[in-house]
Amino acid sequence: MRILVLGSGGREHALVWKLRQSPRATKVYCAPGNGGIADDAECLAADLKSLDSLVAVASQLRPDLTVVGPELPLTLGVVDEFTRRGWPVFGPTKTAAQLESSKSFAKEFLQRHHIPTAHYAICDSVDEVRAALPHFHPPVVVKADGLAAGKGVVIAQSKEEAVGVAADMLSGKMVGEAGSRVVLEECLKGDELSFLVLSDGERVAPLVAAQDHKRVDDGDTGPNTGGMGAYSTAAIIDDKMRDWLVNHIARPVVEGMKAEGAEYKGLLYCGLMMTVRGPMVLEFNCRFGDPETQPILMRLESDLVEALEASIEGRVSDGDFKWSSDASVCVVMSSGGYPGTFDAGKKISGVGEAAKINGVRVFHAGTTKRDGAYYTSGGRVLGVSARAPELEIAVRRAYDACAKITFDGAHYRKDIAARALKK
Ligand code: AMP
Ligand code: GLY
Fold first, then answer.
1. CA-CA distance, 34 to 219, in Å (whole number)?
2. Ligand closest in space to the Cα of 289
3. 140 lines ligand 1 (CB under 6 A)
4. How many domains does the chain have?
5. Which atom of ligand 2 is nearest to the CA of 287?
6. Residue 223 has pLDDT above 90, yes or no
7. Which of 295, 320, 345 delimits the end of a domain?
8. 292 & 333 share domain
């Protein structure tokens, strides 16, 4: 079968790598892809912001399966459009993807279905923010309602700061249209957990859990990013907790969406805070996480094509995934300056050397390939990933690999999975 992956990041490189291993895959394409994906799949030009462009690519190719990586095409309705044309596609519809594209929709949905989440208020003006603030104790989390590529959440240390941030969001200064409505939230404390499940609209099958590292610098300091690294081990959550998360969060979400006439098929990413009051939902994503997908798929031992088809065809079951008990980790190497401004076009060396280390795989994100050499082209450049029977060894392998890779301004955190190793 011919498989098309939409996207251009490290997540899509990991998806391409895993999908290619399926005995059912005859050829894998990626639109638009990146410099490293081009080594593993045929890359096709496409504009992820334009449904017309994606339809044009698929109508040429007629893939037997399309896998959508990022949220933007999903929230534009790529699944609705492809399904209408009879093209098999993995992911939720535009209506179902509101769980990610509108934080106010997600919060009201959670409340309607009694799924644990932080106290909140939805505000459309600065006056509404002022009126709601007496119900909050600082710090207060201020969130833009719409998609803001990781820049739409600020933890305000005081109520005055919260008013200022909300005003900047509401005026469009901070994140444009995405901030025309804001959500205020109680600030939760605890460890964050990325809990992903596969859904066919009725049933769910959990993937192994992962932990992301969102801040740019060591010790969880500096600004938030799309994610600077992630790891996955069998020890992150035990079977009892996994079952609790399925029964009290993931399945109620999927059942609630169905009951409301917005069947949720695809990958549901539950961003959770493990608080003293129990696990609570911070956010949903309607797709695979980046960089969580890199370590998660490194532990997958069963056929990903079969699992994604089970979602499309309505036959998801608990046995859809077989996992290795090994640990895995992904260390993101980014351009200097990211998540702020950075220069692109820096020559990358050492990727081949790094990939020779046992258990290591280098997934590309912001790279291009010219005359046989890789160059940086984005903020997150590479996801240097490793798998090993012990987390400690996986981490050492990933960092040995990072040490072999150089480009001007390269930055990476030195403490990915460090807290888990201390435990
Ligand atoms: P979101 O885009 O909603 O996932 O928020 C991005 C990040 O902000 C999360 O991964 C958390 O680190 C942090 N965050 C979001 N909501 C809260 C909250 N209610 N309490 C504490 N931290 C939060
Ligand atoms: N790693 C967080 C995300 O994919 O949004």
1. 30
2. 2
3. no
4. 4
5. 4
6. no
7. 320
8. no
